[in-house]
C-alpha cells in the first residue's frame, strides 16, 4: 500500500519547511535509509529519509516550494501502483530525519583558493558550519577545496577567513566607508567615524531574534534568584566521575537532575500559556540551551525526573554533542517543557534568561565561586552558585517560583537525593 510522506516537524517552533532539492525523482527505486529530499527550515536543514522500500510514485511539492508541517509532499509505494487509489486511511509513516545546521546555497561561480580535500559525509556532502557556508557564499569561495579545522574536519569560520588570502581579506571589509541612509525620522546612519561593515543575519539568528522578542513582548517575566552551597554537589561529581557508568559527568548534569527534582515537587512551574490557556504537560522534558557557532539549539532530555542519573548523563551528553556537531536527531529539538541556560564556564556571577516560547520558565545558572560566607557567626570559605529562575508571571507567581528554588537548592545541597 502506498505511503504518504509528510513534511515533518523538526522543532517546537517550526510550522513549515522549504524543499531545497529532491534527491530522488519520480520512478526511482527507494530503499530504507535513502535520502528523499533536503528541506530548509528556520533553524536547520534536514534530510528526509525513506522508512521503507518501494518506488517514488509522485512528488506533490516541487523543489524550492514550501510546505506546512504535516502536509503531504510525496508518495512512495510499489511499482505500477496508482497514486489516485490512496485514501485518507492509507498507511502513513513519519519519515526519519537527518539534520545539519542551516546553510546557504553554494555560489554559482566559485573562486579557487587552495588545494586540499574537505571532509564530507557518506553521501558526499561537505561538512561545514552555517556561518562558514554563508561567508563562503558572500566571498565567492569554493567549499570543495577548503580544508576544515573543526570536529571531524568540519569547515568553520576561521577556515574561510584563512582561505581568502591577505589581499582579499584586506578588501573584504571596508575600513573607511561613509553610509548615509534617510530614515522616517531623517536620522542618518553614519559609519565614517569608526569604520565597520554591515551583514545580514543568518536564518537561525533571525529566528532567535524573532522568538526572543515575541517572548519578552507576550510573557511578563518575573525573576527569583537563590544562592546555593555547591560543596556537596562538587564532592559527588568528583566521586562519580571515576566510575565508567558516569563517564563525562559534570555539574551541569547534576543541575539538570536537580531542576527535574524541583519541577516534580512544584509542577506548576512546568506549565505554559498556549492558545490562551494553561498547558500542563504530562512529562518533565528539560531543554539544554546549547551555543553553536552561529546561534543556539536546545536539545531536550525527556522524562528527566524519572531517568536514573547515569542515564541522564548519557542522554544529555549525546544530545548536546549532536547539536554541536550540527546533526540533532529528529526528536532532539521538540517537546521541551522547561529550559536551562548555564554560563558557569564564563565566570558569570549572575544573569537572567529569556523564556523559550511555548514554555513557562527558564533557569539561568551562573559560575560556582569561592566566596566568604557566614556560618554560625563566623566567616568561612564557601563554594556558592547563583541560579535565577525566570517565569511567565501570567501563570507562575512568586510562591511557585520560590518553592521551585527551595527544592532546587535542597537537591544540590543534599545531592544524595539525585541518586534516588
Assign the CATH class of the largest domain.
Alpha Beta
Helix content: 10-25%
Indicate the overall shape. globular
Strand segment tally: 19
Counting DSSP H or I runs of 4 or more residues, the number of helices is 8
Low-confidence stretches: 85-98, 100-116, 166-188
Largest sheet: 6 strands, mixed
C-alpha end-to-end distance? 48 Å
CATH topology name of the largest domain, in short, is Chloramphenicol Acetyltransferase
**Reading side by side through the largest sheet, how are the strands ordered?**
10-19-18-17-13-16
Q: Beta fraction of the residues?
A: 25-35%
Mean pLDDT reading: 82
Report on this structure.
The chain is of the alpha+beta class and 420 residues long. It folds into 3 domains: 99 residues, Beta Barrel (OB fold (Dihydrolipoamide Acetyltransferase, E2P)); 99 residues, Dihydrolipoamide Transferase (Irregular), CATH 4.10.320; 202 residues, Chloramphenicol Acetyltransferase, CATH 3.30.559. Helices cover 23% and strands 25% of the residues. It has a 6-stranded mixed sheet. Strands 7-2-4-5-9 form a 5-stranded antiparallel sheet, with no helix packed on it. A hairpin with a 2-residue loop joins strand 14 and strand 15. Helix 1 packs parallel to helix 2 and helix 6 crosses helix 8. It is globular and about 85 Å long.
Amino acid at each position: 500500500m502506498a505511503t504518504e510522506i509528510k513534511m515533518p516537524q523538526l522543532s517546537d517552533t517550526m510550522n513549515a519547511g522549504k524543499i531545497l532539492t529532491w534527491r530522488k525523482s519520480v520512478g526511482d527505486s527507494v530503499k530504507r535509509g535513502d535520502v528523499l529530499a533536503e528541506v530548509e527550515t528556520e533553524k536547520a536543514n534536514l534530510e528526509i529519509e525513506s522508512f521503507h522500500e518501494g518506488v517514488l510514485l509522485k512528488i506533490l511539492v516541487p523543489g524550492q516550494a514550501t510546505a506546512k508541517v504535516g502536509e503531504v509532499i510525496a508518495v512512495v509505494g510499489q511499482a505500477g501502483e496508482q497514486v489516485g487509489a490512496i485514501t485518507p486511511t492509507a498507511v502513513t509513516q513519519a519519515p526519519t530525519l537527518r539534520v545539519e545546521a542551516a546553510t546557504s546555497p553554494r555560489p554559482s561561480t566559485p573562486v579557487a583558493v587552495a588545494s586540499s580535500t574537505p571532509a564530507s559525509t557518506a553521501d558526499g556532502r561537505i561538512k561545514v558550519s552555517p556561518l562558514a557556508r554563508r561567508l563562503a557564499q558572500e566571498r565567492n569561495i569554493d567549499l570543495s577545496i577548503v580544508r576544515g579545522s573543526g570536529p571531524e574536519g568540519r569547515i568553520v569560520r576561521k577556515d574561510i577567513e584563512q582561505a581568502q588570502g591577505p589581499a582579499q581579506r584586506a578588501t573584504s571589509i571596508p575600513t573607511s566607508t561613509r553610509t548615509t541612509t534617510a530614515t522616517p525620522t531623517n536620522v542618518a546612519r553614519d559609519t565614517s567615524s569608526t569604520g565597520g561593515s554591515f551583514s545580514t543575519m543568518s536564518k537561525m539568528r533571525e529566528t532567535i531574534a524573532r522568538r526572543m522578542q515575541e517572548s519578552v513582548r507576550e510573557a511578563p517575566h518575573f525573576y527569583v534568584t537563590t544562592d546555593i552551597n555547591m560543596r556537596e554537589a562538587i564532592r559527588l561529581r568528583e566521586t562519580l566521575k571515576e566510575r565508567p557508568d558516569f563517564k563525562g559527568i559534570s555539574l551541569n548534569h547534576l543541575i539538570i537532575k536537580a531542576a527535574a527534582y524541583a519541577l516534580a515537587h512544584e509542577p506548576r512551574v512546568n506549565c505554559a500559556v498556549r492558545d490562551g490557556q494553561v498547558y500542563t504537560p504530562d512529562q518533565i522534558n528539560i531543554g539544554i540551551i546549547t551555543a553553536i557557532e552561529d546561534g543556539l539549539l536546545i536539545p531536550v532530555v525527556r522524562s528527566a525526573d524519572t531517568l536514573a542519573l547515569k542515564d541522564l548523563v548519557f542522554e544529555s551528553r549525546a544530545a548536546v554533542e549532536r547539536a554541536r556537531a550540527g546533526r540533532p536527531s529528529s526528536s532532539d529539538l521538540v517537546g521541551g517543557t522547561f529550559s536551562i541556560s548555564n554560563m558557569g564556564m564564563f565566570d558569570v556571577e549572575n544573569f537572567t534568561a529569556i523564556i523559550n516560547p511555548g514554555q513557562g520558565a527558564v533557569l539561568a545558572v551562573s559560575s560556582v565561586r569561592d566566596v566568604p560566607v557566614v556560618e554560625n557567626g563566623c566567616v568561612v570559605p564557601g563554594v556558592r552558585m547563583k541560579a535565577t529562575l525566570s517565569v511567565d508571571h501570567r501563570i507562575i507567581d512568586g510562591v511557585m517560583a520560590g518553592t521551585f528554588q527551595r527544592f532546587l537548592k535542597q537537591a544540590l545541597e543534599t545531592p544524595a537525593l539525585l541518586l534516588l
